[in-house]
Design goal:
Strand order of the largest sheet of chain A: 1-2
Distance between the termini of chain A: 36 Å
Order of helices and strands of chain A: HHHHHHEEHHHHHHHHHHH
CATH architecture of the largest domain in chain A: Orthogonal Bundle
Number of helices of chain A: 17
Number of strands of chain A: 2
Largest interface: A-B, 37 and 37 residues
Largest sheet of chain A: 2 strands, antiparallel
Shape of chain A: globular
Radius of gyration of chain A: 21 Å
Structural class of chain A: mainly alpha
Oligomer: homodimer
Number of domains of chain A: 2
Chain lengths: 365, 365
């Protein structure tokens, strides 16, 4: 259990834990715009920081006991780059929301985080990425062969961590983890295939981002729910909630890259410059006339960066890509809210989650 | 349970199953030289073939249900090259020897075989091997990125198959499987490091072959024992038995490459030509004078193949490499026999295993 909650008018603050997770997805400026929640949000920030500290301590002191010494260097390199730890925090908080013990969830939480980092090590090889979180990618620093093996060792170790769970829910945890892990690898394979694929349908794109991003977030929520002894129905609802919110979040990422607020100095058009197959580009291509398609193809090798961005945005405008993307996000948000409404937790807790989902949705705007 | 046993004077032939496994390691000529066992051996051969067929059927019809379709091609390629299936046959037979049901062991047996094949896919990348079992290596046929991902998918799928085991022994199965799998990856990393390492100690070499080869054989035996409800002590004895017999077998492989019987047309010296760091070369280097070491170094780039082999064998003779290797095998054999003697199964069954171990040992001579 979390030790110190400084949240007003709450004796039991389980639902706050879930709140925390989504706040990390929400920028300060949006949080601060919400009236009357400033004190709450400060408390929540403390809770996230506390949970992250506890997880980090487990990761350093416990999670790699018995790990092959020969793989330690590159493993510490990638794990030490300290991502936001969104997945384990999601898992731990959901567990607590349903009344489970944080200690019971540390093994599965580290399994999820180690698995996620394994996927980064192998993805960086496949994507020819030189850097990761501002540091050298593992295959750049340690070479291809070491990166393959360390990834294998980490994938394996995620199962070793998961296997430490209590026997009475181990089979369920393995089922959820196995399915998500399998889908992540499947998603990466789709992504590899997209590289050489002329046309990608919206359905294919959605399947890819679902597998590459959303399923692991959704599975984190479900694993936490299992450890917290949630009903099978609630497990499914929280999974669906996470899946659709994750999809909305992913598409929002694409959206903001072209239509984000530039008043904070954020640059627009990075994805366009990289010819990245985003939801926007795929929507454009799937709605383009032959001449638009030829123009898109020509722009992919345009050297003038400012012209490349403005010409592509003009095509997006012509094809109503902004509206179509926005409508997709709205649909995903609505689906995730439906799952949230089905969750058999107290209305009070539900309303917090609703507020949260709204905040994420508003940010997408 | 196996349907038809045609073994004389045996109502319950569980111990025969274990026999079968080791026979696949033993060439026909040795088997046929053993007096009075010809009929027995024919029966055993049938039993192996039957068990392999049943496993193959499971592999084709059951083991890849739910596997990502997008990974199927390369997976079928490597799995379809049909190795000897030694590990699953070991597992299934040991299970039956201890009174377990073959059907309960099919999931773990396929987990071991899929894991083994995953390790081949990634090892072939790391070893720059173009071929595997006479066909193209996965990374040659499908490219590096696909080979990394398919390996990941197979590693993951081995856990999915293992997870299908009965809940009451799942935790034990995972513990044994996790440990072996982790050691296999550790062993491959040792092997990678050896490439750039001038001197390899005997201890390092033994650790590497233990991890790369023996632990998975030993774990196969132990997993079978767990499913057959063997005692913890017997699980350990059968593990140790397999581990040391595996080591003896591995060193024998090195030994025969230089000192094997050439009367059946087998070529001698392949490892020497490849500058492979075998037990023999390592023993030579660790016992060599400075001038011998210089000679060994010079020979590594010798172009005349016949001269390279005969000069290296002369160094081996000078340093008594043959005797030292033989003595190492004898020691490993003796250790494996001690574990066998501790096994709490009927003397009659034990005597069969003893005969088997002797056959393997005689072959090493």
């Amino acid at each position: 259990m979390l030790n110190t909650f400084i949240f007003p008018n709450q004796s039991k603050n389980n639902h706050i834990c879930l709140l925390k997770l989504f706040l990390v997805l929400t920028p300060n400026e949006v949080m601060e715009d919400l009236p009357g929640t400033k004190q709450q949000l400060e408390s929540v920030k403390h809770l996230i920081a506390d949970l992250r500290d506890r997880f980090e301590e487990y990761l350093i002191k416990q999670a790699f006991k018995g790990y092959p010494a020969i793989l330690e260097g590159p493993t510490q390199h990638i794990m030490g780059l300290k991502g936001k730890r969104i997945r384990p925090i999601l898992l731990l908080s959901t567990c607590e929301m349903f009344g489970g013990e944080i200690e019971d969830a540390m093994g599965p939480a580290s399994a999820i985080e180690i698995f996620h980092n394994f996927s980064l090590v192998h993805d960086d090889i496949i994507d020819n990425a030189d850097t990761r979180r501002g540091a050298e990618a593992v295959h750049k620093k340690y070479g291809l062969h070491n990166a393959i093996l360390v990834g294998d060792g980490m994938l394996l170790h995620s199962f070793i961590q998961l296997s430490k769970s209590r026997t009475d829910n181990l089979k369920d945890l393995l089922r959820v983890f196995n399915k998500a892990a399998s889908e992540v690898i499947e998603g990466e394979q789709y992504d590899v295939n997209f590289e050489t694929q002329d046309k990608v349908s919206e359905e294919e794109y959605m399947l890819m981002i679902k597998n590459k991003t959303s399923v692991l977030l959704a599975a984190s929520l479900q694993l936490g729910a299992i450890i917290g002894n949630a009903s099978v129905e609630d497990q499914q609802h929280i999974y669906d909630f996470g899946l659709n919110l994750g999809l909305a979040f992913q598409i929002k990422d694409d959206y903001l890259d072209s239509y984000g607020d530039t008043s904070f100095g954020k640059r627009i058009g990075g994805d366009i410059l990289q010819n990245k197959k985003t939801f926007l580009l795929i929507t454009a291509m799937n709605n383009a006339s032959r001449s638009d398609l030829e123009e898109i193809k020509r722009l992919s090798s345009e050297k003038d960066e400012a012209k490349k961005i403005s010409d592509m945005l003009a095509i997006f405008d012509r094809l109503n890509v902004k509206g179509k993307t926005f409508s997709k996000m709205e649909q995903l948000y609505s689906t995730s809210m439906k799952s949230l409404n089905k969750l058999s937790i107290e209305e009070e807790k539900k309303s917090v989650l609703k507020t949260l989902a709204e905040m994420i949705y508003n940010r997408s705007r």
